[in-house]
Amino acid sequence: MQIQCKNLSYIYQQGTPFEELAIDDISFTIPSRSFVSVLGRTGSGKTTALQLIKGLIKPSTGEIIYQGENHENPADNSTNHSDNKLYVFSATKQPRNERNRLEALWNSIGYLFQYPEHQLFEETVEADIAYGPKNLKYTDDKVHKLVASAMELTGLEYSEFAKRAPFQLSGGQMRRVALAGILAMEPKMMILDEPMAGLDSVSKVRLTNMIYNLHKELRWTTLCVSHHIDELWKYTDYYLVFADKKVNFAGTSSQLLDRWQERSIEVEPPSLVKLALSLQAKGIIQKSLIELEEELKTEDSFAAYLRGIIC
C-alpha cells in the first residue's frame, strides 16, 4: 500500500481557546512495502501524522491518498495500473459510501501503540489475541486458526502461552502478545509507535528482528517510530524525519547518507555513520558514505571493510 499525504495540517481542539497546531502543511509519499523509520523529537508531530494515516483523527486541511495494490499481480505496484484502488481521506465531508470504503481500509492498517501491554485486559493470552477477530463475528474455528497463526508468527508457543495470564509474562512477551492481537486481524499495513520503548537491550533486538521478519514475510508497508536511529538503521528503506511540526526530510537511506556527507541535515546519524565520518576526516576512509551504504548497515560488515583497508 502506497500512502501519499498532501498539505496535511492538524489542529487539536480547533475553534477553542485551547487550539494547538500539531502538524503544519506536510507532504510526503510512502512507497509500497517499504520499511519506514519515523524519526523526531517528542512533540514534533510524528504521532499525529500516523494517527491521521490510520484514520483515528481527521485532517484540518489537506488529504491522504491510499494507493491499493493490483490484486491480479501483487508484484506490480505501478501507480498508473487500472486495477489499483484509490482511497482519498480529506478535510472535506465525504459521501457515506466513500466513508465506508475508507473505514474498511483503515481496518486493514494495524496500529501498535506505545507501551501496548497496557492495553491487555483479558484473563488469558488466547482470549486477548482473539478479541479483535471475535468482534468481526468470525466463526470460532476461524478465530482459533487466526490466534494460533498469530502466536506462531510472534514466537509464542500455543501450548505454553495460550492459557497463561498476560500480566504474568515478561515485558517483551507481553509486547509480543499485543503484536499477535494485531496480527490476528490480518493487517495489510503496520504502524508501530515506539515499539521498543521501555524494553531491555536484548528484548529490543529480539522484537526489532521479529517486526522486520514479519514485514518481509507478510509484505507489509511498515511505519515504525523511534527516537533512536541506531535501533532501525539496518532495516530501513525510507525515512520520515519530523521537526517543529513539519517533515524536514523524506527519502531513502542513500539520500540521507548524502545529506550527512554534505552536513546539510540536523539529524544525528547512527553510530557507524558517525565513525565513518570521523575516519573520513582523518583520511583513513576515502570512499563516500553512499559508496559505503551496504558496509554501514551492520557492525560486522563495516568491521570487515575496515580490516580490508587497514591490513
From TrEMBL:
<keyword id="KW-0067">ATP-binding</keyword>
<keyword id="KW-1278">Translocase</keyword>
<dbReference type="GO" id="GO:0016887">
    <property type="term" value="F:ATP hydrolysis activity"/>
</dbReference>
<keyword id="KW-1003">Cell membrane</keyword>
<protein>
    <recommendedName>
        <fullName>ABC transporter domain-containing protein</fullName>
    </recommendedName>
</protein>
<keyword id="KW-0472">Membrane</keyword>
<feature type="domain" description="ABC transporter">
    <location>
        <begin position="3"/>
        <end position="269"/>
    </location>
</feature>
<dbReference type="InterPro" id="IPR027417">
    <property type="entry name" value="P-loop_NTPase"/>
</dbReference>
<keyword id="KW-0547">Nucleotide-binding</keyword>
<comment type="similarity">
    <text>Belongs to the ABC transporter superfamily.</text>
</comment>
<dbReference type="GO" id="GO:0043190">
    <property type="term" value="C:ATP-binding cassette (ABC) transporter complex"/>
</dbReference>
<dbReference type="GO" id="GO:0005524">
    <property type="term" value="F:ATP binding"/>
</dbReference>
<dbReference type="InterPro" id="IPR003439">
    <property type="entry name" value="ABC_transporter-like_ATP-bd"/>
</dbReference>
<dbReference type="InterPro" id="IPR015856">
    <property type="entry name" value="ABC_transpr_CbiO/EcfA_su"/>
</dbReference>
<dbReference type="InterPro" id="IPR003593">
    <property type="entry name" value="AAA+_ATPase"/>
</dbReference>
<dbReference type="InterPro" id="IPR017871">
    <property type="entry name" value="ABC_transporter-like_CS"/>
</dbReference>
<keyword id="KW-0813">Transport</keyword>
<dbReference type="GO" id="GO:0042626">
    <property type="term" value="F:ATPase-coupled transmembrane transporter activity"/>
</dbReference>
<dbReference type="InterPro" id="IPR050095">
    <property type="entry name" value="ECF_ABC_transporter_ATP-bd"/>
</dbReference>
<dbReference type="Pfam" id="PF00005">
    <property type="entry name" value="ABC_tran"/>
</dbReference>
